[in-house]
Specification:
The complex is a heterodimer of chains A (about 400) and B (about 375).
Chain A (H helix, E strand, L loop, with lengths): L2 H51 L2 H6 L1 H7 L10 H17 L2 H11 L3 H14 L6 H7 L6 H9 L7 H6 L2 E3 L5 E3 L7 H32 L2 H12 L6 H12 L4 H8 L13 H25 L4 H8 L4 H29 L3 H6 L7 H10 L4 H26 L8
Antiparallel strand pairs in A: 1-2
Chain B lengths: L2 H10 L4 E11 L5 E11 L3 E5 L6 H9 L6 E6 L2 E2 L10 E4 L11 H10 L5 H14 L15 H13 L5 E5 L7 H18 L2 E6 L2 H7 L2 E6 L2 E6 L1 H6 L4 H6 L4 E11 L2 E6 L4 E5 L10 E5 L4 E3 L8 E13 L3 E8 L3 E8 L11 E7 L4 E4 L1
Parallel strand pairs in B: 3-8, 3-9, 6-7, 7-8
Antiparallel strand pairs in B: 1-2, 1-4, 4-5, 9-10, 11-12, 11-14, 12-13, 14-20, 15-19, 16-17, 16-19, 17-18
Helix pairs in contact in B: 3-4, 3-5, 4-5
Classes of the chains: A mainly alpha (about 400), B alpha+beta (about 375).
Bound molecules: adenosine-5'-diphosphate (ADP) and magnesium ion.
Chain lengths: ~400, ~375
């Protein structure tokens, strides 16, 4: 380093030293929030990622069996030592009541495995000595199947691709290759597509309805703008559940909306709105409107009224002035508003559950089902990861397309 | 034909007015008029400034002319034809806004080319015009920049170029230099004035800065409270303000309340608050109003010389404040029983005054003006 460089470094260090107290003060102010975010946001997401690939059951319940399977050729029926190890593991499992856990986990990949494991565990309890192989095979032929053993062996690792693959309608064949699941089992890509489609539709509707509202808000006299703003914000101050329930009431076949449609003779008979996708989209659009409007409004408000006037004075007719001068300048707000609504819509859960039909359930509904009813945390986490990745991908895509500086949330 | 000749012609032949306001009134709320009884002709090639304090209705007047606001009553004629039905884009009027209103999402060149596409000028012809317009305001090299990358002065020039590029018959400017620092403002004043003269543009310019108005204008319309208080060329406005508002708004003026005693020839005799009298010019003041004053500029008051001379008012008072300002001295004197009178004493006459010291001052009768409120 030259003398000048050393000087520069010294100055740099001196500046850092001089500003250290201010930096510490700033950090200490932000610390509670940082701690909160780590505990309440980062940690759960990490846990989600781990759960989506975690595979503890087989390892914990069948340690001896996995050990014995080490030397298995993978093609033939295993020999007696494997069955003996399995018997020993299942005895312990029976005592610890972990057999059900194992059965449930293996059942995801081999149907009927749950009851087979439980029945075998019950049988093993009564056996004192081997040889075990015939007894196992006598109880259930499939204990002799190399595929069963291949899957058990495969699940000996601490990580599994199973949940992620399932969430993407894929599965691993016993020989390890990845393939598409068949027919009516392939549901998750459909659900994902439907979720994206509904979110896109809701975003589009909120934009079409919200953009003019945001514009009127910026040009209306103060008093009227205040009242309009209140009406835009009011839904935000009402609980989501309450609003959704209100829509359930409104959308009934004998509800107000149908009454009005009938009274206006717009339809001859009552329209099925509740438990349909139309209903879901209507309710979600209503709930999401403020999220689209507010960023657009805030950007519009920052555009001086002289912009349109300047365009007119330079010769642009009103429509041309709007599209060439005004609309491009509102783009940051439009992108921010749409992104917000789209991403929030991807995670909708209560509204589709209450207003939508069985075929309108979104990814979140499945996540909830897997957590609450099936206790399948792995698959719930797998779906969660897919949703997270899709959301991030869309976010990054938007950033790429319009540039980070073009997104203004406030 | 220079401007003065044209103007004298114009007064004979009113058709030469490019713009005419006829009894224009404007109210936004239906209760208060912010522009009241506006009658004004703007002549071809003229630089007319609307000067007045904030809220006096200048912008409103300009907006009506530009087509962005409708007169509540009265008519605006452009080239002899009423324009009420004409939308802004059909008026072919250039408008430079207070905040420039450059389009932030376009480059400088795109900004300047914007008005051309609506006039059917595209491609190479448009490029050439943009180049010329930017050259005219010395911004040749900055065509690819965005407005946000320019300094305030440069943005101002872009706005100017964008307006001049389509050769409008009339250019309106609303406080275009308000956001610039003093030095730049003064340079831009001269540049704008030069452009206006060399291109022969008719200009209606709005400002609240009297020195700007005096520098640039052929004629100045002083606005106050929605009315034109006086319409005159800068010199007349400065020397012969027609009322107290104009007197105090343009330059500095001592305003001293008085009552009218009578007249001697063309000279009015005014009695001041303490009973002393002053002579003042002011032929057109009836003197019946209650609100009369004698108005005299500080630079027209001097320390009294030896001996009494004709044509001068002389009065005495006690020194209050003295500020030495380099080229001159400001001396405030309490005279006429409590009235503060400020005199601007040239530096070579400056001397020390003690607080309360008796001072005798004098001022020319023709420079004392009898004014009504
Ligand atoms: N769009 C508007 N709506 C209501 N009142 C306005 C509007 N524009 C101006 N005014 C009012 O009209 C008066 C004159 O304003 P303006 O023409 O902007 O004056 P200036 O340009 O001389 O400052 C002010 O009192 C202002 O509050
Ligand atoms: Mg104004």
């Amino acid at each position: 380093m030259t003398v000048a460089e050393i000087d520069r470094v010294n100055i740099f260090m001196a500046v850092r030293r001089a500003e250290r107290p201010a930096r510490r003060a700033a950090l200490s102010l932000a610390l509670p929030l940082i701690v909160f975010l780590v505990v309440a946001f980062v940690a759960p997401i990490l846990y989600l990622l781990v759960t989506a690939v975690g595979n503890p059951e087989t390892r914990e319940v069948l340690p001896r069996t996995l050990e014995a399977l080490q030397n298995w050729d993978g093609a033939s029926t295993p020999d007696e030592p494997v069955y003996a190890a399995l018997a020993a593991d299942l005895k312990v499992a029976k005592d610890n009541s972990t057999a059900a856990l194992l059965g449930k986990r293996l059942n995801y990949e081999i149907s009927g495995m749950r009851s087979r494991v439980l029945a075998t565990a019950r049988m093993v309890e009564k056996l004192d000595t081997g040889p075990y192989k015939e007894k196992f095979l006598a109880l259930n032929q499939d204990w002799g199947s190399p595929e069963t053993w291949a899957i058990i062996k495969r699940n000996g690792g601490s990580l599994t691709p199973y949940y992620m693959l399932t969430a993407l309608d894929l599965k691993q064949a016993p020989n390890g290759s990845v393939e598409r699941v068949q027919g009516d089992q392939a549901i998750f890509l459909d659900v994902l597509g439907r979720t994206l489609f509904v979110a896109g539709l809701v975003t589009l509707f909120t934009l079409i309805l919200g953009y003019p509202v945001a514009y009127v808000l910026t040009i209306a006299p103060k008093a009227i703008a205040g009242i309009m703003m209140l009406m835009v914000l009011l839904p935000l101050w009402t609980s989501l559940l309450v609003r959704t329930t209100a829509w359930v009431v409104l959308l009934q076949s004998d509800g107000i909306i149908n009454d009005v449609l009938m009274a206006l003779h717009l339809t001859g008979e009552r329209v099925q709105l509740i438990f349909t996708r139309v209903g879901t989209v209507i309710a979600m659009t209503h709930i999401q409107l403020p999220f689209t409007i507010l960023p657009i409004y805030s950007v519009m408000r920052s555009i001086p009224t002289t912009q349109l006037r300047a365009a007119r004075s330079l010769g642009a007719p009103p429509s041309s002035a709007f599209w060439r001068i005004y609309a491009p300048q509102t783009l940051p707000g439009v992108v921010a508003g749409c992104l917000m609504t789209f991403i929030l819509s991807l995670g909708y859960y209560i509204t589709p559950a209450l207003v939508g039909g069985p075929r309108d359930q979104m990814v979140s509904n499945f996540i909830s089902t897997y957590i609450n009813r099936d206790l399948n945390w792995g698959l719930a986490a797998g779906l969660g990861v897919v949703l997270l990745v899709v959301t991030l991908a869309i976010y990054l895509l938007f950033l790429r397309l319009v540039g980070a500086d073009k997104i203004k949330l406030g | 034909m220079n401007f003065a000749q044209r103007m004298s012609l114009a007064t004979d032949n009113p058709v030469d007015a490019l713009v005419r306001f006829e009894d224009v009134k404007k109210s936004y709320d239906g209760i208060n008029f912010v522009v009241k009884d506006l009658n004004l002709d703007v002549f071809r090639g003229e630089f007319l400034t609307m000067l007045g304090p904030s809220g006096s209705g200048k912008t409103t007047t300009l907006m009506m002319l530009g087509g962005f606001e409708q007169p509540t009553l009265g008519h605006i004629l452009l080239d002899g034809k009423p324009v009420e039905r004409l939308p802004p884009e059909k008026r072919n009027i250039g408008f430079v806004f207070q905040n420039y209103a450059l389009f932030p999402h376009m480059t400088v060149a795109e900004n300047v080319a914007f008005p051309l596409r609506y006039r059917g000028i595209t491609g190479a012809a448009a490029k050439e015009k943009v180049r010329q317009a930017l050259g005219r305001v010395s911004l040749d090299a900055l065509g690819d920049r965005r407005p946000a990358q320019l300094s305030g002065g440069q943005q101002q020039r872009v706005a100017l170029a964008r307006t001049l590029v389509f050769e409008p018959s009339l250019v309106l400017m609303d406080e275009p230099l308000g956001a610039l620092d003093k030095q730049l403002r003064e340079r831009m004043q001269i540049e704008i004035k030069q452009l206006q003269t060399s291109l022969g543009i008719t200009m209606v310019y709005v400002t609240h800065d009297q020195s700007e108005a005096l520098t640039m204008s052929d004629r100045i319309a002083v606005f106050h409270d929605g009315r034109i208080q006086q319409l005159a060329d800068p010199k007349t406005l400065y020397d012969e303000p027609s009322n107290r508002f104009v007197a105090s708004f343009i330059g500095e003026n001592n305003t001293m309340p008085c009552t009218l005693l009578g007249r001697e020839g063309g000279v009015a005799i005014a009695r001041m608050a303490d009973g002393t009298t002053l002579k003042a010019a002011g032929a057109n003041v009836s003197g019946t109003g209650a609100n009369i004053s004698v108005s005299v500029r500080p630079e027209n008051i001097s320390l009294a010389g030896k001996g009494v001379r004709a044509g001068l008012n002389r009065f005495s008072g006690k020194a209050r404040d003295v500020f030495f300002l380099g080229d001159h001295m400001r001396l405030s004197v309490e005279a006429f029983g409590g009235q503060l009178v400020t005199a601007r004493i040239p530096a070579r006459q400056a001397r020390h005054f003690a607080l309360g010291e008796d001072v005798v001052l004098e001022c020319g009768i023709s420079e004392c003006r009898l004014l009504e409120a």
